[in-house]
Structures are given as C-alpha cells and as structure tokens.
Amino acid sequence: MIIYGSKAVHLKSKQSKTTTCPNCRTIGSVVLSVYRRHAHIFWIPLFPIGKKGVSQCQHCKNLLKINEMPEPIKREYNALKKETKGPIWQFTGPGILTALVAWGVYAEGERKKRDMEYISAPMKGDIYEYKVASGSYSTLKVTRLSHDSVFVSPNDYEISKKSGLHTIDKSENYSDSIYGISKNELREMYGSGVIFNIGR
Predict the structure, then answer these.
(1) What is the phi/psi pair of residue 3, to 5°?
(2) Residue of 84, 90, 98, 189 with fewest CB within 10 Å of its CB?
(3) How far apart are CA 53 and CA 28, in angstroms?
(4) Can you say how many angstroms the Cα of residue 183 is from the centroid of all Cα atoms in its chain?
(5) Helices 92-120 & 183-191, crossing angle to 10 degrees?
C-alpha cells in the first residue's frame, strides 16, 4: 500500500504592531503565521505545493484565513510570506531520487565493465544469461576453454522473465551436450545484447 498525502510546516510568525483586530478592535494584537505545504510519499517530502497562512488575535483569539483577512492584515501577511523561505528538507524526495538514479547508473556501468572483463578472460564455471530466439531466457555454463573458444553446456530449461533465471540455474539442469563458441562470437553476443549478464 502506497501512503501519500500532504502536510503543512510552520515557517515563520510575526506580531503586527500596527494592524487592528477586526473582531475586538485591539491594535497590535494580531500574529501572522506562514506555513508551507509539501507532498509526501511514505512520509518522505517530495516537493512544496504552496504557502498558506493565518492571522490570530492574541486578545480575542479570532482566527482568520487569508481570504478572510481585511486588506491591511492581508498586505502585511503577503509581505511576510514574500520574505519567508521554506526549509530545504522539503525537497528530500527529489534528492533521494536523484541519488538513486545516479547510483543505478554507476552500478550498471560497473556491471558492464565487469562483464567485459569476464568476456575477455572467460573461466570454467562462468554462467552466461542470454535471450533465447523465442523471446524467453536461459543460461549457458562454461565447461572448458581453448585458445580461441569457449565450450558451454546449455540449460535444459527456459523462463519468461530475466528476474527468474536464478531459479533454473542449478547444476542438475545443465545438459550433457557441449558445444563451442568462439571468443569473437561471444563478444558479439554480448555486444548485441543476446548475452546480457555474466555470473562468476
């Protein structure tokens, strides 16, 4: 279940020295307060969605929203709102998202770098995850090597999703039949995306 919504955070309050409470007519008793709402998901702030405010008389406790404020109070509130800055933590969500994307790009780069090393210097026992012509996915296991070729044993099983390949990568699932792939062809298969991950 995704929990989302919005929340208001108090930014600043100021007591007016000149305005008059429209309810009890007391001068200098009105306190102006500015709040900023932000959207959140799982209580992580995503982004601000605007400032709101109220005024309250400290004498009679009369509370007014912006659209209820007399013009003098509204002018002073708008001036306070303009000079009030919100906390940077209300942008936490985009910061976390940016960090996750950056980490994902870095991790993918490191994975490809590692795979290229494995392709250039294959070892017995390497597992090649690849896309079958039918559109499903399976694995090949390196059984031996020669100067210019890699000999692999195919997995007898295929699966419809990449994420499930670990469930069929079992020693008993590999065929007794073995065939060779030249190292050049192996690089081409990886470059074209037929082989998309290498386990060692």
Answers:
(1) -100, 120
(2) 98
(3) 18
(4) 38
(5) 160
Task: Supply the pTM of this predicted model.
Answer: 0.57
User: Sign of torsion, CA 33 36 42 43?
Assistant: negative
pLDDT of residue 114: 92
Phi-psi category of residue 91: left, alpha or beta, with phi > 0 → left and psi -120 to 50 → alpha = alpha
pLDDT of 2 higher than 80: no
Going edge to edge, which strands form the sheet with 4-15?
4-15, 30-41, 44-57, 63-65
Which residues, at least 6 apart from 190, have a Cβ–Cβ distance to it below 8 Å?
115, 116, 119, 196, 198
Query: For residue 41, what are its two tokens?
Result: 């998901």
Looking at the DSSP bridge assignments, the partners of residue 34 are: 12, 53
